[in-house]
Amino acid sequence: MNEKNNKQMEQIVAFSKRRGFIFQSSEIYGGFAAVYDYGSYGTELSKNIKAAWWKAMVQENENIVGLDSSIFMHPKVWEASGHVSGFSDPLAECKKCHTRARVDHLLEDVGIFADEKMTEEEINGLLTENKEKLTCPKCGQKSFSEAKNFNLLVQSNLGNFTADWEKEPTYLRGETCQGIYINYKNIVDTARVKIPFGIAQIGKAFRNEITARQFIFRKREFEQMELQMFIHPDDAADVYEQWRQKRWQYYLDLGLKEENLKWHEHENLVFYAKMAWDIEYKFPFGFKELEGIHYRGDYDLSTHTKYSGVDLSYRDPQTNEKYVPHVVETSVGVDRTFLAVLTDAFVEEDLGEGKSRIVLKLPKNLAPVKIAVFPLMRNKPELVKKAKEIFDALKSQYMCEFDDNGNVGKRYRRQDEIGTPYCVTIDFDTLETGTVTVRDRDTMEQEKIAITDLEKFFTENL
Ligand code: GAP
């Protein structure tokens, strides 16, 4: 990460805390690595990101239905999925200070690419070859232990009581899509869906990530938004291409700048994938995976059939053909989308004469607060009363904020910083002529609008 990007990252981290978007978890106890909490504005932004995804995936596609499955699943799910045996990252320990690090990340830092499919032996080969270059991120020594595969599943002690299966370890889910596969039959039996159809889900996932870095990009507790399309095997190439295009367009519609997005094709594929492309976003630390689009073949339904003993094949109601559906998956983190959206929208604008403002140029549908309402002066009860009336009328439809603290210029700056598209000021003209001043976040232009026209204005503009 160069100095400029480093500064951008530091600015975003500090801003996120100062304006109540993101807090380090358990801060009063010294923090808890790779776990973060969303503050008041962060919660709104995250909620809006999830709503935008849900609208684009479930509401606007009549052949996609939603699901909300549990975080805990039968332990066999994770055996069948391959996570118990194959969901790991290579870990090495600094021989001096015992800091644990991901070897592929250490190699990446010195420009050497280590693929996720490499065996322990291959990774150790690279580690030995490059031992002079690899530095401990904590103490700076160049002396690491051999790399070992470290399983990323987060184990729990849920229900360790009686039945046989309960003697097996239980896990917090490592990805949300397993909940979709194990409910595939329930959905086919109840939702009147026919192949091709999709099941979409938003929910928490947990991974024992070895290194805590890059802010909310890599968390140990995070949220995923995943779609699994169940398709006929012959349609795989077409469906895959359609979803690649849809998902690219989705990010443009979400307001991300196209020059900050790029495709990355995986050459060596993880155990379940037959085709895999990532959409990468230019985070302050460089282009990194935002979303994965995977063609998973029949891997998931076949292995769950094998492990559960329940036939998960599909019989086409028209042709009577019986087959195991193939899966095309799109998978993105809420938190990574959040960081991409924040990075894209964060602007420090020069206003001339030595003045500047921070403005979050968020798309209006994502803005945490849509309208801020100000009485021009807080010590004029007639202005405050009118402003409260307008605020009360708007708040049933939009997330609004009432602010009577400080001069109006300062209030504008506060709202610019959190990306509020419109501010409405109630002044003495309001009392006389029934008009208010509506100020636009991006242009900073102000226009007088009659109170009676406000509803129409916001319906058209928000
Ligand atoms: N079901 C497929 C799957 O889980 P993945 O590439 O491991 O694939 C999918 O994860 C997406 O989930 C990633 O593209 C990323 O957006 C998000 N994600 C994965 N690990 C994450 C982490 N530790 N913190 C935040 N987001 C993460």
Quick overview:
The protein is an alpha+beta fold. It contains 15 helices and 23 strands. The chain is globular, with a radius of gyration of 26 Å.
Q: What's the SSE blueprint?
A:
Elements: H1 3-18, E1 22-24, E2 36-38, H2 40-59, E3 64-67, H3 75-80, H4 83-86, E4 88-93, E5 100-102, H5 103-109, H6 120-129, E6 148-151, E7 154-156, E8 170-172, H7 177-182, H8 184-190, E9 197-206, E10 221-231, H9 236-253, E11 261-265, E12 275-283, E13 286-297, H10 299-308, E14 314-315, E15 322-323, E16 326-333, H11 334-345, E17 346-352, E18 355-360, E19 371-375, H12 381-395, E20 400-402, H13 408-418, E21 422-426, H14 428-433, E22 435-440, E23 446-450, H15 454-461
Parallel strand pairs: 3-9, 19-20, 19-21
Antiparallel strand pairs: 1-2, 4-5, 4-6, 7-8, 9-10, 10-16, 11-12, 12-13, 13-16, 14-15, 17-18, 21-22, 22-23
The protein binds glycyl-adenosine-5'-phosphate.
Residues 175, 177, 207, 209, 218-219, 222, 224, 226, 289-292, 329, 331-333, 335-336 line the site of glycyl-adenosine-5'-phosphate.
Attached small molecules: glycyl-adenosine-5'-phosphate
**Strand tally, please?**
23
The CATH architecture classification of the largest domain is 2-Layer Sandwich
Radius of gyration: 26 Å
Quick one: CATH class of the largest domain? Alpha Beta
How many separate helices?
Answer: 15
Largest sheet, described in full? 7 strands, mixed
